[in-house]
Amino acid sequence: MKIIRKVGHLRQLMADAKDSGKMVGLVPTMGALHDGHISLVDRARKENDVVVVSVFVNPTQFNNAEDLATYPRTEEADCRKLDGAGVDFVFIPSVEEVYPEPDTRQFNLGDVAAVMEGAMRPGHFNGVAQVVSKLFEMVKPTKAYFGEKDFQQIAVIRRMVELEGFNLEIVDCPICREPDGLAMSSRNTRLTTEQREVAPVIHNVLAKSLDWAKTHSLDQTRRYVVDEINSAPYMEVEYYEIVNPRTMQPLAVWSDAPDGVAVGCVTAYCGKVRLIDNIKYIL
């Protein structure tokens, strides 16, 4: 595995690979890697000749300075995991390397970016679009891999790809969970022992809501999830929306779900740690 820190070096290596007719898989990450990230790498490894993983904590997608400052950074451990997973290149640039000058681009991301995370974190998705578009332009991957835990983010990235005309395939991969159901996340390391014991309530309540939804309205189901999560110590739901998986717009009734599929998207604080998760309702 080669560690690349300069954009020029990365471009040359990727050009050489593409000139040789090789398929290139890209896994963008912000580091603090866990088994969920490695599952993306494994999928990329199976489907491509060359696998590139980026490790970069992107400042433009944080609208909270404290969140950026406390985001876990574990470069040495990350590289050990990636080497063991058979990654060919890991791109670990500095902020100055990615943004030699301020990125002032504003993307017309539309309705998919206007709700939920877009409403709660102004500018977040524009920052995501900035950095992912830069990575796509640098690597020119055949396929790029993203985890479904960030369900809305995948829709935003697809919109950005459409806007920018990138010729690649976006591959969304299932959520990886701890044995107790908690969605794997780099932020989980910030939970105290007591909070970590409580945090699985998010997924447990979502899972229970699948049966609840069979005999209750969409609004009743939404309120059930919020109330049940909020009843646990340390927990406070920021939002829970049941949405159209194509448009990310909240649904009013179950019958509005396209092809009988709706997605419940939740963000909840466990103490000061912001956790996200989602679940599919097959109606």
What report would you give on this structure?
The protein is an alpha/beta fold and 283 residues long. The protein has two domains: 2-173, 3-Layer(aba) Sandwich (Rossmann fold), CATH 3.40.50.620; 186-282, Pantoate-beta-alanine ligase, C-terminal domain (Pantoate--beta-alanine Ligase, Chain: A,domain 2, 2-Layer Sandwich). It has helices spanning 7-19, 35-47, 65-70, 75-84, 95-98, 117-120, 124-139, 151-164, 193-198, 201-212, 218-230; strands at 2-4, 24-29, 50-55, 89-91, 143-147, 169-173, 235-243, 261-270, 273-282. A six-stranded parallel sheet has the order 1-4-3-2-5-6, sandwiched between helices. Helix 8 (151-164) links the parallel strand 5 and strand 6 (169-173). Helix 7 packs across helix 8 and helix 10 runs antiparallel to helix 11 (218-230).
